[in-house]
Amino acid sequence: MTSSVLPQNPPLNPDLIQSLEAVLDAERVITGEKTEKFSKDFYWYSPVLKPMLEDKRAEVALRVNTLDELKQVISLLFADGVPVVVRGGGSGNYGQAVPLYGGAVIDVSGMKEIFSVDGIVRAQPGATIREIETKARAAGWEMRCMPSTWAISSIGGFLCGGSGGIGSILHGGIAYGDNVKSVTLLSMEAQPKLLRFEERDALTALHTYGTTGILVEVEMRLGKAYDWEELIFTHDDWDKLLDWTYDIALDDSIPKRLVTQFETPIPEYFKPLKKYISPGLHSTFLMVDKSKVETVLSAARAAGIEHVYSASFGTPPKPPFITDYTWNHTTLWAIKADPKMTYLQCGFGEPFRENLKKLKARFGDEILFHLEIVLGNAKFKVDSPGLAVGGIPLVRFTTTERLNEMIDYCAEIGVFVANPHTYKLEEGGVHDDIVAKRALKARVDPKALLNPGKMKSYPVNPFE
Ligand SMILES: Cc1cc2nc3c(=O)[nH]c(=O)nc-3n(C[C@H](O)[C@H](O)[C@H](O)COP(=O)(O)OP(=O)(O)OC[C@H]3O[C@@H](n4cnc5c(N)ncnc54)[C@H](O)[C@@H]3O)c2cc1C
Q1: Using an 8 Å Cβ cutoff, are 216 and 184 in contact?
Q2: What total of structural domains would you count in the chain?
Q3: pLDDT at residue 364 above 70?
Q4: Which of 73, 96, 160, 179 to mutate to test the pocket of ligand 1 (most atoms within 8 A of CB)?
């Protein structure tokens, strides 16, 4: 599909802009070229999405600060049948926050109150994860899982567009166990209504790219705060390093927040770490509780694995952070070094070592392994005991056909792929509850105005 087949909505009614300015002050109603920066996310990570989405832009961006403003704005946009994309930090990777049909982007980063952090964070959607993590740690708690973009991303955007990350080795992803306590949505109607969903019922509203209501409050359970030490190790033998890394991951007596392994030359893309990691070496990045650092270091010495870097995460957290090189930050460093690089999101299945070998044998240096070991299965969807070896392998992009060949081969050998080269929800992952998601959308979005075009199987799209 090319961008030219996506039609644009008719231009907004000038009276609507005036009405919006009566609700928000004029500088929070943004029109013209300045809407560009509110209309983009990190879709350009994908050479497939880049040409599809680069000319997409909202006609108006609205910066709301309160629930009351949001309700009034929604009423006005609903009356005019304007498509609406909600936006937090704008750090999504699949064009989730890119408006396909013009219309309005509502930036909720001003709705950022954190009400409490006592074992459960209760916050408005625009609160940044950094702010929550900092407040929580001061009170003896921490985020159970957070994206590597935790410094800029919002809690609402994480729940609506993300899946897991730092901490998922200990607590799984967003959808794992009881990580989410509740979400409160605002419907897209003439008289917007609040709907609260608790525990597993809340999951239906998550990871739907803002198509199933506007998240206005979230409650997420926190974990007990650990005193994390960030450690980097290197070795020239991939399999030997993997055996050691996996043993550390499996050792329940060592609390961990991050277990990441990179194939060479990936660590060479991390310019600020050049002095620590010699060229040609594979590398493991860990966050482990300080009380267990000596255990890990002596295991490394015994296995002949070299320890090259240590730093404290800190309370409050103090940069530099090794998290800045992990999860989908790895891809960013790679693209900076070589614009031909792109990525996949994989669960390597079992036996994962065999599957990695098969991929290497078939694609050689076209695929470079970046592993993230997590609790639960790599889809972050289904609870399952034990660890899964997943990751975000880098791919040297040549053509879309070759990329699809790699994705097809993964399916053939039992490697799960959450395809990051599509903005359509159902094509990007497994949605066992898509029927419930569609039903929720029908209930909260009667005119199908919320992020149209993103939920592919929804039968109504007034802008097609
Ligand atoms: C370098 C890099 C690293 C990343 N690492 C990770 C990672 O480790 N784990 C991970 O899961 N993701 C990761 N991501 C993706 C992304 O950063 C996270 O998912 C992040 O939490 C998204 O938050 P945001 O506030 O930026 O969301 P946005 O990009 O603003 O929004 C994401 C989606 O949610 C919708 N949305 C936002 N707010 C609301 C709301 N209040 N109500 C309804 N819908 C809403 C948007 O419309 C959009 O569809 C990474 C991205 C980059 C660029």
Answers
A1: yes
A2: 2
A3: yes
A4: 160
Residue 317 included in any domain: yes
Q: Can you tell me the mean pLDDT for 198-222?
A: 97
Question: At 200, is the pLDDT very low, low, confident or very high (cuts 50, 70, 90)?
Answer: very high
CA of 451, closest atom in ligand 1: 47
- Sign of the C-alpha dihedral computed for residues 242, 247, 252 and 254 taken in this order: negative
Pocket of ligand 1, candidates 158, 184, 330: which has the most ligand atoms within 8 Å of its Cβ, to mutate?
158
Determine whether the shortest distance from the Cβ of 355 to ligand 1 is under 6 A: no
Residue 248 Cβ contacting ligand 1 at under 6 Å: no
Q: Which stretches within 80-217 are classed as H helix?
A: 129-138, 155-161, 168-171, 199-202
Residues 249 and 102 in one domain: no
Closest CA to 424 of 458, 400, 378: 458
Give residue 331 CA to ligand 1 midpoint distance, Å.
Answer: 16
> Which amino acid is residue 249, in one-letter code?
A
pLDDT at 1 over 50: no
The pTM assigned to this predicted structure is 0.97
Last residue in a domain, options 417, 432, 452? 417
Q: What is the pLDDT of residue 376?
A: 87
Nearest CA to ligand 1 atom 17: 91
In a domain, 436, yes or no: no
The CATH number of the domain holding residue 382 is: 3.40.462.40
Specify the ligand 1 atom closest to the Cα of 326: 8
Q: 339: domain range? A: 228-417
